[in-house]
Design brief:
8 strands, alpha/beta, 7 helices, globular, eight-stranded parallel beta barrel, TIM Barrel, single chain, 19% strand
Amino acid sequence: MAGRVMLGSYLAHGGMTLRQSLALRRRQLGREQRIVHRFYPWSGYVPASEPEVGRDSVLMVSWHGTAWPEVNGGGADANIAKVAKRLAGMKRPVLLRWGWEMNGNWFPWDGSHNGGDPADYVRAWRRMHRIFGEHGADNVAWVWSPNWNSAPDTAANRFQKYYPGDAYVDWVGVSGYNFFAESPKTLFSAVVKAYGERKPVILSETAAVGAGKAGWIRKLQNWVSATPAVGAVVWFDTDIQEGSPHNFRFDTDQAALSAYKTMARSARFAG
């Protein structure tokens, strides 16, 4: 029997602070976000705390990647150690999603921009994992998170090639949106099939766009309810995503908001 799913969001609403967005969703849904998703740059700003994120919520940090040689050559060790110590110092559970969508061709840390050898990504991941362990970041759980499909779509660039190994991954994530009317099953089943018997799966970035959001949300609820391996769903809840024409919020119309409320209040999503 499937357990309970943690339901959360990345929240970035035009004209609103994070605190205001959290309050809006609390009023609409009658519940807190179980996961609050934040993005941190590779270097520069790394907070010592996230006071807006309540203690009843788990913080998920998507930490930007970098070129793999910077990590594998040791040049990034000091930066990695600094972030490890900052996250350890938060003294709260943290889901760390580093270098996500590495099987794509749109980030500086993906295979297309780093010589196309996934083994180098694996080495970088394992090095970072070791450094975090050396600095006592035991509160950090590692989320390995490919895109649902690969670009380029070649055997050498399949998401499985980038997997760091069971000893280095706590959660398997996946990004997937219905940009071309894909169903939740189409977006997420391959990752669940590959890893769902070994690791809990988190839909680390997902949302519906365009018309028919309500129907897609209902499909998502039904698919997750029938898929025991899924332990968390994180909605990409923003209307101000840079470079995107899409509004990813689930309250763009009353039907979509109602469908999301139903999902959020269901027993399966009460984690």
